[in-house]
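Ticket #4471: structure output looks truncated?

Reporter: J.K.
Steps to reproduce: submitted the chain below (329 residues) through the standard prediction queue, then opened the result file.
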Amino acid sequence: MMPKRNWKILLATIVCALGALALAAFEVAAADNYPAKPIKIVVPYTPGGGADILTRTLAAALTPKLGQQVIVENRPGGNTIIGSEYVANAQPDGYTLLLVPASFAINPSFYKVPYDTVKGFSPVGLVALVPLMLVANPNVQINSVKNLIDLAKAKPGKLTFASYGSGSPAHLAGELFKSMVGVDMLHIPYKGSAPALADVVAGHVAIMFSSMSPAVPLVKSGRLKGIAVTTTKRVPAMKDLPTIAEAGVPGYEVQAWNGIVAPAGTSKEIVAKLNRAIVEIVATKEFSDRISAQGFEPESSSPEEFAELIQRDILKWAKVIKDSGAKPD
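Returned output as attached by the reporter:
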């Protein structure tokens, strides 16, 4: 006869196994019925910026594909931390998602974030790569990267550059530029691309390393001057602009990205369903053409590949921050 203690252990094991099976069956059933109501994608920036434009384009394509309304909610502030914390604390049911930019992987090295960047979220997939463009106010005597370097050296600490948040790719693009060419420029952070670019257009700030989506129309209309792009290759949306590397700063490169994550604990079945929908949308010519015209590069991934990208960029940006001495403003 089995000892009484062993019977208790066996019973507990059976109960746990049955519970796990029941939970798995529940998750599969929930995924089969998903989505049964509208889905919200939180954008951690102000309306009108590149990430906002991209997310609204994605949401419009997801709505008919998923059969439920996909809405966008802006929760700016804290270099995406406010919106990210909100989603980290949301129910992991697939109805609250987060648009994450490269800032998401920068923040752990720059701020004390109130969530675990890796363990607090379930990566869904990449949506686009985001080249940055160096732009200047038309009245500032900057027409090339060389002009910028000369002016910054002539007026150390006086030339201003805007960004869509302290610790954002736009900020670190400027810090990397400063460290590589040996100049001092004053960083002015904003809560999003729209207000930052508005002040560059108004002449309150001289330059910005901007995401291309909101900057391209401003350059084409003459309200801003396009100087160069931050990637290793020229960008089709502004093919006449040189890269910063070819314009006189060899080795310079900043490549940002945008993707979607869900709260940690979201079922793998729901994540997989969302990922399939996003991959199919990114592959369409309509979506690709629309975001390419805005300066994005369409790019999808599996959830696992996106998780690897996030962790890889956490290490990459930590080194840039350490080497440049960048600090929150």
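Triage note (M.O.): checked the attachment and the full token line is present. The longest strand covers residues 121-136.
Status: closed, working as intended.
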